[in-house]
Amino acid sequence: MKNLVIVIVAAAVTQIVAEKLRFDNYTLYRITPTTKKLVEALRHIEEEAYLTGYNFFSEVGIENIPVDILVPPEQIQKFRDDILEQPDVKSELLNENIQEAIDAEGVRPASKANTFGWTSYHTLDEINAFLRNTAFANGGSVTLLQGGQTYQGREILGVKLDIGSQTGKQSIFIEANIHAREWITSAVATYLINELLYSTEPEIRELAQGYVWYIFPVTNPDGFVHSHTNNRLWRKTRTPYSVLCYGADPNRNWPYQWMTGGASNQPCSDTYAGPSPLSEESTRTLSDFIDSVGEELVAYISFHSYSQMLLLPYGHTTAHLDNYDEMLAIGRQAITDLSRRYGTQYVVGNIAEIIYVASGGSMDTVKNKFQTPIAYTYELRDRGQNGFVLPASEIIPTSIETIDSLVSIFKSYRARHG
Q1: Which of 215, 197, 221, 216 is nearest to 207 (CA)?
Q2: Do the Cβ atoms of 364 and 305 come closer than 8 Å?
Q3: How many CB atoms lie within 10 A of CB 168?
Q4: By C-alpha distance, which of 220, 216, 287, 228 is closest to 249?
Q5: Which of 10, 91, 189, 299 is the most exposed place for a label (fewest CB within 10 A)?
Q6: Cβ distance 44 to 118 under 8 Å?
Q7: What is the pLDDT of residues 281-303, one digit of tens each?
Q8: Residue 115: its pLDDT value, please?
Q9: Cβ neighbours of residue 344 under 8 Å, at least 6 residues apart?
C-alpha cells in the first residue's frame, strides 16, 4: 500500500505541474449490482477511487441501479476478480478505451478560432466571446451578465434575453456546466441562446418572447478550463483543500439539505460537498445573483449529462413534495415530445428514486427557497457508450430535441395556468 500511495502522489504532482492526463486503455463498464453485498463492494471502490485511479461516471445507489465505472488498466484484473466474475452481477462493456473517444470528441480546430458554431466543442474563452458578441449585436434585447466569479478569478458570464415588447413577463433561469466535464451542457445552452434570438419557428418565437431568459452556459469556469487543459474528466471546482485534493462538487455545495446524503466529506472525492454550504466562490456568488432574481422565476432548469433523464426535486428524499404530480405529468409529455424527432428515449422522475440520493444541489435549493413552480434537471445524451465524452456530431441533435422538450414544458404549463 505504501508503494501505491507513492505512485499516486507522484502521478498527482505531475498532473498539477505539467502534462495533460491521458486515459489510454481505461475501460468503461456498466455494472448493475443485484445484491447488497455487491453494492457495498462498489461503494468501497468508490470511496478509495482517488487512490486507485477509478473514475465513477455515475454514483453507487442501491440494488439494480446501474453504475458506470471507468477502470484503469492497472486495476482491470482486480476489478474482474472482485466484481465482474461475481455470480450476482450484471455487467456491460461500454467502451474499451475511453481515450479514443476523447481524441475523437471534436474540439474546435485552431483554423476556426475566430468563429463559433455547434459542430465542435468550445473553450471558455470562445464561449465568453460568443456571449459578449451576442450582447453587442443585440443590444436592445440581450444584456451581458456577470453572475458570479470563481476562486481563480474568472467571471461566470451569462446573458439576459428580453425579446419583444411584452411586459410583465416571468423569468426562466438556465444553468449549465456546473460539473466541468459535462461539455454537452454548455454547447446546448449556447445553441438555445442562438435559437431564442434567431429561430423563425413559431413555437420557439413564442417561447422566446413570452419570458425573460437568464442563461449561464458555464457556471464552473475553473473546473471547465481544467477539463480542457489538464484532465478531460475533471468534475469539481479548483479550490485547493490539501496538497493533492482540489475542488468541491459545486452541485453538492448548496444550502438546502447540505450533506444529508449522496455527498462526501472527503476532499479528494468527486462528490466532496465542501467544508460548508456555499464554500465555493462560484456557488456563493452565483447564489447571490439568483437571489436577486429569484422572486420573478417561473422556472429553474439545470443542464447536466449524461443518461437521458428529466429529474424532479428533491435529491435527498423519495417523497413527492410540492407540485411533484403536476411536474411529473408535464415532464412525461415533454419527454414524449423530445423523442418524436430522433427517437431519443428519456425517463422522468424524482432524483432519489430514479438515480440515487444527492443532497446540496442547486435546483433543490432554488426550488425550496423560492417555490419556483417549474424545476427540472436534464441529464442529456447519451446512455453510456461515451459517457461524458459525447461526440461533437451529437451537439446539434441533442440541442434540437432539448428545445423541443422546453417548448413542450412551457406549452403544457401555460395550458394549465394561463
Answers
A1: 197
A2: no
A3: 4
A4: 220
A5: 10
A6: no
A7: 999 999 999 999 999 999 999 99
A8: 85
A9: 308, 338, 381, 397, 401
- Burial readout 95-122 (b: 16 or more C-beta within 10 A, e: otherwise): beebbebbeebbbbeeeeeeebebebbb
H/E element, 94: strand 89-95
- Would the pTM of this model clear 0.90, i.e. be above it? yes
Sheet with 155-161, strands from edge to edge, namely 142-149, 155-161, 212-216, 171-176, 297-305, 374-380, 309-312, 347-350
Closest CA to 292 of 399, 369, 386: 369
Q: Which residues pair with 156 in a beta bridge?
A: 148
Active-site residue list: 379
**How many whole angstroms separate alpha carbon 263 and alpha carbon 361?**
10
Tell me the helices (H) and strands (E) count for the chain, helix number first. Answer: 14, 12
Q: 462526501: which residue's cell?
A: 264
- Are the C-beta atoms of 380 and 320 separated by less than 8 Å? no
